[in-house]
């Protein structure tokens, strides 16, 4: 898949077959593909498509994300010890109510929309610019990786506070019952910095995650969809594989991020840690002391199960909206 944003004139757009020319006039040549977005609508298209894709990605599999947060607990309560994702979901519903796995989904949606809009817009712009430098007229994997990494800086700046609130609401026996209540309590007792306590750890996790994710996705697309058609099947398969590989590789950092976000009281008290845990190095040390090497892979099953369909959904929805919005703009374009 080529996710390039066409600049004015679209002269550097890669050639390839285009969308169905239902109402397209003679001005639409066969080389105008859905990746080659018309000047003036490209950025908005990416942002709308990215926002919708991000919300879908985070909400459809949200119950599994709730399970992942609990399974990453270093010293779980006896009532929150699970052997599998299915057992965890079943137990949560039976003992805590049908809607319990969805607690915190509203703040996730609130953060995911703007975060993913910025993320995809930045990725598209940077990928196009860097590809022209590294491999003019071609698809540079280095450009894909760098663009994905830089886009993550913007994404995480918006998403990190939402992640903190979400994970505190997902915890077993969470003292918080609402998003506003959690925000107010955390701000009052721990200060504004608490919402960004895990930012560096999240960046350290997400930069390699997104680099692996995008490179794997583009490699899969080269094999499954070499002509860059709009092909939902290839987007779903490539997205799922890319998500699984990136998720498994970065699970140790995700465990540390969860510890910094939740400030797990039982775990910190067992090591006589007073106050609040901060810093990636301290998080790594704490995880190792309490769980050894296996501790870094707590919840890996839930993380992979969550990421595979999530990234498949994100890419398929993103590509569909990009195709749909671009096709609509091209059809409205006066024929020459």
Explain the overall architecture.
- By secondary structure, this protein is mostly helical.
- 67% of the residues lie in helices and 0% in strands.
- α5 crosses α7 (199-224).
- It is globular, with a radius of gyration of 21 Å.
- The two termini are 29 Å apart.
- The model is unreliable at 1-41 (pLDDT under 50).
Key features?
336 residues; mainly alpha; 0% strand; globular; disordered N terminus
Could you provide a short overview of the structure?
The chain is an all-alpha fold and 336 residues long. It has helices at residues 42-60, 62-71, 85-96, 105-134, 141-170, 179-190, 199-224, 232-249, 251-262, 265-270, 280-295, 300-332.
Termini Cα gap? 29 Å
What's the main sheet like?
Answer: none
Instruction: Give the SSE string.
Output: HHHHHHHHHHHH
The fraction of residues in strands falls at under 5%
The low-pLDDT segments are 1-41
Helicity range of the residues?
A: 55-70%
**Overall strand count:** 0
Structural class: mainly alpha
Q: Round the mean pLDDT to the nearest integer and report it.
A: 82
Q: What is the tally of helical segments?
A: 12
Shape: globular
Radius of gyration: 21 Å
């Amino acid at each position: 898949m080529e996710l390039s944003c066409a600049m004015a004139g679209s002269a550097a757009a890669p050639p390839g077959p285009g969308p169905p020319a239902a109402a397209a006039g003679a001005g639409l040549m066969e080389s105008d593909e859905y990746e080659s977005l018309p000047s003036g609508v490209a950025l908005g298209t990416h942002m709308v498509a990215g926002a919708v894709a991000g919300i879908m990605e985070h909400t459809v599999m949200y119950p599994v994300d709730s399970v992942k947060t609990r399974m990453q607990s270093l010293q779980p309560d006896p009532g929150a010890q699970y052997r599998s994702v299915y057992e965890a979901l079943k137990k949560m519903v039976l003992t805590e109510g049908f809607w319990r796995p969805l607690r915190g989904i509203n703040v996730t949606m609130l953060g995911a929309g703007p975060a993913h809009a910025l993320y995809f817009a930045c990725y598209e712009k940077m990928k196009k610019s860097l590809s022209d430098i590294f491999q003019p007229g071609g698809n540079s994997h280095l450009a894909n990786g760098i663009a994905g990494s830089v886009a993550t800086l913007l994404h995480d700046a918006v998403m990190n506070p939402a992640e903190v609130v979400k994970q505190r609401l997902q915890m077993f026996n969470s003292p918080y019952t609402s998003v506003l209540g959690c925000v107010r309590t955390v701000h009052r007792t721990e200060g504004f910095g608490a919402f960004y306590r895990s930012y560096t750890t999240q960046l350290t996790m997400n930069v390699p995650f997104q680099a692996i994710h995008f490179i794997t996705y583009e490699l899969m697309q080269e094999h499954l969809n070499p002509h860059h058609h709009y092909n939902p099947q290839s987007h779903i398969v490539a997205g799922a594989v890319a998500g699984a590989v990136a998720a498994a590789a970065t699970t140790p950092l995700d465990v540390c991020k969860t510890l910094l976000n939740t400030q797990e009281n039982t775990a910190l008290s067992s090591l006589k840690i007073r106050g609040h845990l901060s810093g990636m190095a301290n998080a790594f040390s704490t995880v190792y002391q309490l769980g050894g090497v296996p501790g870094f892979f707590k919840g890996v099953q839930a993380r992979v199960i969550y990421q595979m369909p999530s990234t498949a959904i994100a890419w398929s929805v993103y590509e569909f909206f990009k195709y749909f919005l671009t096709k609509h703009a091209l059809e409205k374009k006066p024929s020459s």
